[in-house]
Structure formats: C-alpha cells, structure tokens
Amino acid sequence: MSSELDPSTDLAIEVRHLSKCYRLYSEPRDRLRQAFQPRLARMLRRFGLAVEERRYFAEHWALNDVSFEVRRGETVGILGRNGAGKSTLLQMICGTLTPTTGDVRVNGRVAALLELGSGFNPEFTGRENILLNASVLGLSREETLARMDDILAFADIGDFIDHPVKTYSSGMAMRVAFSVIAHVDADVLVVDEALSVGDAYFQQKCMRWLRQFQERGTVLFCGHDMSAVTNLCQRAIWIDKGRMRMAGAARDVAEAYASFAHSQGQGLPEENVKVSPALREEEEVPPVAEMVVAVPEAEAEIIPSPHAGLRLDGNAFGAGKARITGIELRDAEGRPTALVQGGQMVQLVIQARTEVALPDVIMGFQLKDRLGQVVFVQNNIRTRVREEAQAPAGARIEARFTFRMPMLSSGEYGFGAAVASGSQTVHVMQHFLHEALIVHVDMPGHLGGLLTVPLARAELSIHAEAPA
Fold first, then answer.
1. Whole-model pTM?
2. CATH of 63-108+187-272, one of 3.30.230.10, 3.40.50.300, 3.40.50.880, 1.10.3300.10
3. What is the SS3 string spanning 443-458?
4. Confidence class of residue 174 from pLDDT cuts 50, 70 and 90?
5. Is residue 295 within 8 Å of residue 289, measured between CB atoms?
C-alpha cells in the first residue's frame, strides 16, 4: 500500500514492514490449475465432499519485512547483490509495484530512473517520449513544452530527438531519460544503477546536477560503486536476500558490504565477515621506498601513540588463518604519530599472527579518506623473497612500509591492514581489517581537490604587445 505523508513532517519516505511475494509456477498450466482448483474445492466442501485445496506454486519473497525512514534532504544508498531485492524496494517506493504487505509513504513528487529507458515507447520519437514521460511524472503538456528547450539542451542528442527511441544507443536513451528527470521539479529522486551508462562527459554532467539536487531534495541511490555511495550518501541500507541486513552511516555499511562481497568471492562462509557494532553517523620519491617483511623470533608488541586512533575491532573479513594484531604509523625518527603532513616520510608498521603455517605471506595496506574512498593501496609483493615469506604456525609477522605521505587535503584518513597468502592475482585473504588506524593529515595552503602534486617548476610569462 502506498500513500502520502503529512506535509508538515520532516520525513520524505517512510517504509513500514514492506514485503513482496511472487508466485513461481513450474509450468504454464499450473497457473490455470491454481485459478480453478482452490475455488472448486471450496465449492465441493459446501456439499459435504472432503476435497482439499492444492497449491501449484512456490512462494518467493523478493522483499521481507523491511522498515526504514528517510528524512528530507537526506541521500541514502541502497546496497546489495543482484537479486537481493533492491529494485523491488525502489519500484514499490515509486508506486510502480504493489506490496504484498506493509506500507510506503512518500512526501512530495517522486522522479525515478529505475531501468534504462523504462517508461519509454520504443516506437515513439525522443520528443514524444519526453511528453509522455513528463506527464507520468506530473507535468502538464503546457509545462513540458515550456521546458522542452532546456530538456533538449541537457540531453544534447541533436536531430536524433525526432527519431524513434528504438534507433537510439543505450547512452542516448539514458540522456533523454535523465534530462526529463532533471526538469520535473521532483522532491524525491530515485536512481537505480543508471548513472553508469553513457559517456564520461554526460556522467560528469549528471553528477553535477545530482550535487545541486542534493541541496534541496531527497535521493535514494542504488548502485554497486562503493566510492559513489560513500561520496554521495550520508546513510546506507544493505539489503540481502530480501531482508534489511544493516543500516547506518554510508561508510560503515559500504565497508561491511564490501567485506561480505569479497568474502563470498573467495568462497568463505558468512561468519568470517565481522561487522563492527558501533556505527558512525557519520623531489620525486617512489611510492614505497622501503619494505621489509620478517618473522622474528622475539615477541614485541606495538605500543600505539596515545593519540593514535587504533581500531582493531572494526569491520573485517577473511579466512582467519592469520590475524592483524597491531598497526602503527611512525615519523622519520621512528616515533609513533597520528598527525602527519603531506609529503612527509613515514613508516607504517603492521603486525599479524598466524594460526596455522602459511606459505607465500602477503602483507598490505590501503588508505581511505573520510568518505571511504580509497586513496592508494600497497603490499610487499614486489620486494617479497619467497624463502622469507614462509610463516610457521604461531608466528608473529611484522611488515614495515616506508613511503612519502601523499600531499592530501587536510582531514582524517584511515589505514586498513591486510594479511593474505598466495600471489598478487591468486590469493586467499586471511584477515582484512578496514580502517585499523585513523590519522590526521595537515596540509596548509592546500588549494583544493583530493591531493596536491609537488611542482618541479612553475613559470609565468607576460609579453606586452607594441602599440599599433
């Protein structure tokens, strides 16, 4: 059931115990049997005949008891594998699919980009489909005609606008569909994995418009691009097998889902994925100047700086035959630090312990920004000596990575640590710990962007022309 929210509330979307069940028939004639047999059985029972009703279908719950709220102005990501129920959820929010049970309430006009070209008639021209699609989204013919020039300019497909949509490429259809969405004055925008279609120029154009829309509207964004989800969304919802698996800050949910996806890809059981219970609301030098991997006999624990943001209980996954036990960032003098500047030489020390003997040990790390976007990744593969990478059971492994810190914009960054076994292309992840260490980067005079590159030289020439 779908209905409208009270306009006075600050909620944009309210979903309560939403479920959708499909009937699956093994063969077409079972549909006919299902239509008549139960009715016939009920009728015969009235005459005293003991005839049981039969079921000729199997139930498939595409969505099962999902509840959440989205406030006005929020951007919420929807994550999940193919077939998890994401599209079913979005279609019910948009009103194009009727729930089996539960209730959906939406405040304001909804514009949706669910499937490529959905709502388009392939026999109609692009212009005719614009009029049709805009009318479905609530615009009158006069309103659409008044905005037609702007819609056509945004789509930018030239004379093809007067050709049938069936002659369009997928990118051209995407341009027209998104152009309509961008000009209907929607309050809620639903995007289902559609922005990956089209050329780079149009994708950038869509993202600029989406950023502007976020300043005044509510967005439900569904996609598999973790960087886009963490960059665009404040919160995220993870749907798995029709049920809501996790909800919280976009960064936490994206990390948990990525861990689950990687674990599944390696054939590891679900219990090997750990989700942190605490959710947040929120001059040329080679990339790695020195790397050392060792299995020392002596036991020595890393003593973290009192200011270091050490998190060994965060989101993680892996086969569990080795485990990260410590991580620390040190300055050029070897002192523990959690405050660094761009361009500073540092050393990242990671410790792990094996549960069983492991051949071909790999140690590595990644650095993420505050939105969860991966800045860079490194490991010891290039410098690994095979004989030194064989770890017996119960061994303590220590890896030291010496490198120059990228010239990043000021803010908090997270180091993730990993221990694996195998090669670069074929390996088993034993323990991957997201954001095991949080550090603060200070970059005075940063001009913008994710990072700054050191300039070898900068020149400015001014030539005054002789007067005529």
1. 0.73
2. 3.40.50.300
3. CCCCCCCCEECCCCCC
4. confident
5. no
